[in-house]
Design a protein that fits this description.
Blueprint (H helix, E strand, L loop, with lengths): L1 H32 L13 H19 L3 H21 L9 H4 L2 H16 L6 H23 L1
């Protein structure tokens, strides 16, 4: 029963997962770039973290709407892996391996959530899916008209 129910709603749940993941990444970009909400941790950022904020802002927005989902998610996955190792694991100079001790739990989760989206796509409620559907319809019409002309 759960297999059939899960298969029915899988594309919609994938779209919801993509949307929420994008929204959460986007909020970090807004906080880093626009300083909203004002958080002491994001008050004076080094250039590398500001660049990460720009990526999170732009790519998070693309993830929300589901445009270029696979490459965007792949880039974000790499950014989050980079953030974990540079910003969490080695932030004190010494390696702190345990994510609970170095504050890197969210970075790891974002890394693997985005890695999953990079291979699964954005789901049925995305700009990617709408463009793919439009392209399929155009190719079907071209095939039909091409056969009629022969």
């Amino acid at each position: 029963m759960f297999d059939r129910l899960g298969a029915t709603y899988q594309p919609l749940v994938l779209s919801l997962f993509r949307f929420v993941t994008g929204l959460l990444v986007f909020q970090y970009g807004v906080a880093k770039i626009f300083k909203f909400p004002a958080l002491p941790y994001f008050a004076k950022l080094p250039p590398l973290i500001t660049t990460a904020g720009g990526l999170e802002l732009v790519l998070g927005a693309l993830l929300i709407i589901g445009l270029f989902t696979r490459p965007v998610a792949f880039i974000l996955s790499g950014e989050m892996a980079f953030a974990y190792f540079l910003g969490h694991m080695f932030k004190t100079g010494e390696a702190v391996f345990h994510p609970l001790n170095n504050g890197g739990t969210a970075a790891i989760l974002f890394c693997f959530a985005c890695l999953y989206l990079s291979v699964s796509g954005g789901g049925s409620l995305s700009v990617d899916a709408a463009l793919q559907k439009r392209n399929r319809l155009e190719h079907a019409e071209e095939s039909r008209f091409g056969q009629a002309a022969e």
